[in-house]
Amino acid sequence: MGSFSWNEEFSVGVHCLDTDHDLLFGLINQLESAFDGSPEDHHNICSILNAIVDYTDYHFAREETLMAACAFPHLQEHLHSHDTIRRELSVHAARVREGLEKIDPQQLFLFLSQAFLDHLKDEDKKYQPFMVPQMETVLQANEAFVRRQSHVDITLIEND
Ligand SMILES: [Fe+2]
Fold first, then answer.
1. DSSP state, 137?
2. Which has the closest alpha carbon to 82: 55, 54, 63?
3. Terminal CA-CA length for the chain
4. How far is the CA of 80 from the centre of ligand 1 (A)?
5. How far is the CA of 116 from the centre of ligand 1 (A)?
6. Residue 123 Cα to ligand 1 middle (Å)
7. How far is CA 102 from the centre of its chain?
């Protein structure tokens, strides 16, 4: 299985989004460790996967808000890519909840690699040249987003 480790080359030039990506990579690493350590620990694996689903929703909503605020011209394609990932992630998560014997970990991590690493490199990088020159707009839109989301309880597993 591959390893997910955020570094500067993954930066999209916007701190809050880099932090989200780093956090998601950390959760996926925790999931890999959970599978490697004790595959029978179904409860732990489900908890981490639930955190990945919840934080992906939060992160995608933030990214979509900031792209819209910057009038990113490829917003529709990006929304479509997010919708596909959300849908496939929920299918994988549901299958894992049903029981580990139903899933192939290799396939799960291949999906996570495509959904997060490839999406970051191929899609997220495209908004960087639109967002970075509009940083004031980005920061204001993020502040408004965080205020709107403050009622949302996202229980995160510590990022090690
Ligand atoms: Fe994205």
1. H
2. 63
3. 19
4. 10
5. 8
6. 6
7. 24
Give residue-wise pLDDT tens across range 99-135. 888 788 889 999 998 999 999 999 999 999 999 999 9
Interatomic CA distance for residues 130 and 142, integer angstroms? 15
Cβ contact 138:69 at 8 Å:
yes
Query: CB-based burial of residue 4 (10 Å sphere; 0-12 exposed, 13-18 middle, 19+ buried)?
Result: buried
Phi-psi region of 71 (alpha: psi -120 to 50; beta: other; left: phi over 0): left
Taking the centre of ligand 1 as the mean of its atom positions, its distance from the CA of residue 101, in whole angstroms, is 31
**Spacing, Cα 85 to ligand 1 middle (Å):** 10
Residue 9's CB: how many other CB atoms inside 10 A? 6
Q: If you measure from the C-alpha of residue 38 to the centroid of ligand 1, how many angstroms do you get, rounded to a whole number?
A: 32
Cα 79 to middle of ligand 1, angstroms:
8
Q: What is the pTM of this model?
A: 0.90
Cα of 60 from ligand 1 centre, angstroms: 6
Q: Which residue has the tokens 């990945």?
A: 52
Tell me the per-residue pLDDT of 30-75, one tens digit each, with 9 for 90 and over.
998 888 766 568 889 999 999 999 999 999 999 999 999 999 999 9
